[in-house]
Amino acid sequence: MIDLLETEKRLLEPHVISGGIAVDFTMGNGHDTLWLARAVGPSGKVYAFDIQEQAFKNTRKLLDENGALGNVELILDSHANVAKYVKEPFCAGMFNLGWLPGGDKSVTTRLESTLEALRSGISLLADGGAVLLAVYPGHDEGRREGEAVTSYLSSLDRRKICCSRFEIVNSPTSPFFFLIEKK
Ligand SMILES: C[S@@+](CC[C@H](N)C(=O)[O-])C[C@H]1O[C@@H](n2cnc3c(N)ncnc32)[C@H](O)[C@@H]1O
């Protein structure tokens, strides 16, 4: 059976540049931040965002344990403010929407800030770069985010940006994801 988390990384990997800039828009427990930090390597840089102190602490611990703190900037702020912190084009970005695994389920990503972060992220994306965005439609806000992101991405000019959606069609509540590639 397809492993969506593995598949999404395989699709993002060709866009990652060694020594480049990457953004984790939802650091959570830090697994994606760590993956990005390893992918860009020690001469690259990762900016990682979360609004929860617990996510910040969990991520810092994971990075520290793996000797990967050196090239990561952890930011306790909403990803909607990405343009305040990231001033150069980035090659790879990840959104893993929803709540902190093992944390408070009432603190989840919200469609307004998700869309704002996605718009800003796309304008900061380097030519040839890509953003991966995973949606969890098994809860109400996740379903709304999925619909809003689909509608927004469908409106973008396909000559400039290619937006693909990957889903398990016979499992409508399973997570699905988008790959957004700048030409
Ligand atoms: C599913 S988790 C991310 C999992 C993470 N990528 C990992 O590898 O462990 C979603 C995270 O998004 C965070 N979040 C919610 N709203 C946010 C916002 N406006 N800006 C940044 N992060 C946000 C939550 O606090 C939660 O930690």
N-to-C terminal Cα separation, in Å? 31 Å
By helix and strand content, what is the structural category? alpha/beta
Low-confidence stretches: none
Mean pLDDT: 96
What's the CATH architecture?
3-Layer(aba) Sandwich
Q: Measured on Cα atoms, how large is the radius of gyration?
A: 15 Å
Could you write a compact summary of the structure shown?
With 183 residues, this protein is α/β, with parallel strands linked by helices. It is built from 6 helices and 7 strands.
Structure explained in plain terms:
This protein has 183 residues and is an alpha/beta fold. The chain has a single domain (4-182), classed as Rossmann fold (3-Layer(aba) Sandwich). Helices cover 36% and strands 25% of the residues. Strands 3-2-1-4-5-7-6 form a 7-stranded mixed sheet, with helices on both faces. Helix 5 (111-124) links the parallel strand 4 and strand 5 (125-135). Helix 5 packs parallel to helix 6 (140-154). The protein is globular and about 40 Å long. The chain binds S-adenosylmethionine (SAM).
Characteristics:
binds S-adenosylmethionine; globular; 6 helices; 183 residues; Rossmann fold
Topology of helices and strands:
Layout: H1 4-12, E1 21-24, H2 31-40, E2 45-50, H3 53-65, E3 72-76, H4 82-85, E4 90-96, H5 111-124, E5 125-135, H6 140-154, E6 161-166, E7 176-182
Parallel strand pairs: 1-2, 1-4, 2-3, 4-5
Antiparallel strand pairs: 5-7, 6-7
Helix pairs in contact: 5-6
